[in-house]
Design brief:
By secondary structure, this protein is an all-alpha fold. It has one domain: Hypothetical protein af1432 (Orthogonal Bundle). The chain is built from 11 helices and no strands. Helix 3 crosses helix 7. The protein binds fe (ii) ion (2 copies). One fe (ii) ion (FE2) binds next to helix 6.
Length: about 220
């Protein structure tokens, strides 16, 4: 039995979340092939299959796992039980399935994102947001926005980064509308990406000017 077959057999998820999980596994491989061809799609597939492994556990069960795996949470993080599953799933991925730290970290940050994400973190975070089984409006909008950017941007990595930024904005706006707490990690991630995209744009404009010999105004 392969690792992926074993994980699929071990998953205890509702039908809807099981389909979502398969959708993320499919999407993460496509994102990696497009943007980061040196990444291991096998490892990413394992991360995708495990990313919501504990999502349907009760908060109490999550807390037991947090204790078992010495998962430290900030006061801010402790306020949002919905986010616990990313940390507990990452711990189980390492402990039970022997996933390496780099891959487990993609599971750990798949809900909040973080500033300066690794390539694997970016792929899993975004695949979780835009996989094909996602039907809520916000996800469809982000998916369509990213697809438009792919057609428009010469550099497909820019399309990915702008897509991820749009997803952060969308999540933050949604939480504000619902009057809910916003995880500072997501805000930091959003701000870092704004800076990165701006700096890349400025660098490209400068390079274009140098190529065409045009002076800046
Ligand atoms: Fe999740
Ligand atoms: Fe998910």
């Amino acid at each position: 039995m392969t690792m992926t077959e074993k994980i699929i057999k071990d998953l205890r998820l509702s039908n809807e979340r099981f389909l979502h999980t398969l959708g993320v596994a499919d999407c993460v491989k496509r994102l990696a092939e497009r943007h980061f061809p040196l990444l291991s799609t096998e490892k990413l597939e394992v991360a995708a299959l495990l990313h919501d492994f504990t999502k349907e556990y009760s908060t109490d069960k999550q807390l037991v796992l947090c204790k078992k795996y010495n998962i430290v949470m900030t006061d801010e993080e402790a306020k949002t039980p919905k986010l616990y599953h990313a940390k507990t799933a990452a711990a189980i991925a390492k402990d039970t399935y022997g996933v390496d730290d780099y891959t487990a970290s993609a599971i750990y940050y798949h809900t909040t994102g973080r500033a300066n994400m690794t390539d694997a973190e970016l792929c899993l975070y975004f695949a979780d947001y835009i996989e094909d089984y996602r039907t809520d409006k916000a996800c469809i909008k982000v998916r369509e926005y990213y697809q438009k950017l792919l057609a428009k941007e010469r550099d497909h990595l820019v399309a990915l980064k702008k897509g991820v930024l749009y997803s952060y904005d969308s999540t933050i706006m949604h939480l504000i509308k619902k009057g809910e707490n916003i995880n500072p990690t997501t805000i930091e991630a959003r701000n870092q990406l704004v800076d990165e995209i701006k700096q890349n744009g400025e660098r490209k404009t400068k390079n274009d000017r140098q190529r065409t010999g045009k002076k800046s105004k």
